[in-house]
Amino acid sequence: MTSATASLTHTAALARLGHALSDPTRAGILLALRDSARYPAELAETMGVSRQVMSNHLACLRGCGLVESVPDGRRSSYRLADEHLSPALDEFLRVTLIVEPDCCDGEGCTC
Question: InterPro entries this protein is in (predicted)?
Fold first, then answer.
């Protein structure tokens, strides 16, 4: 693989992560899944969105390769697709808050 190819691959990977994090609901889903798998209905209730909205966001995150569905009888839960994502999200959040600690005020980003 040439450095140009690797660069394009890396750019695409980061763009997928950026797309996933660009929506507050998707970002919240990723943060909620850091510790354990969760059911869509539980995520929807916690985040105050409809089940249909949650389903759409989970489909987007699956398409980005960031979450996966785990069959559990007639239901499915969701978890992060790779064990490296949880510490990476923790670190990304930590660095973001260090760089701009007053960026987000709880009502939305003030950047």
Answer: ArsR-like_HTH, HTH_ArsR_DNA-bd_dom, HTH_Metal-responsive_Reg, WH-like_DNA-bd_sf, WH_DNA-bd_sf
Is the Cβ–Cβ distance between 86 and 80 less than 8 Å? yes
Q: Is the pTM higher than 0.85?
A: no
Contact 37, 79 (CB under 8 A): yes
For the residues 34-63, what does the mean pLDDT come to? 97
DSSP 50-76: -HHHHHHHHHHHHHTTSEEEEEETTEE
Which of the four pLDDT bands, split at 50, 70 and 90, describes residue 35?
A: very high
Q: Answer yes or no: are the C-beta atoms of 36 and 79 closer than 8 Å.
A: yes
Q: Choose which CATH entry (2.70.180.10, 1.10.10.10, 1.10.10.60, 1.10.3810.10) describes domain 3-82.
A: 1.10.10.10
User: Chain centroid to CA 24: how far?
Assistant: 9
- Apex 110 CA angle, 46 and 15, nearest 5: 70
Arithmetic mean of pLDDT, 53-59: 97
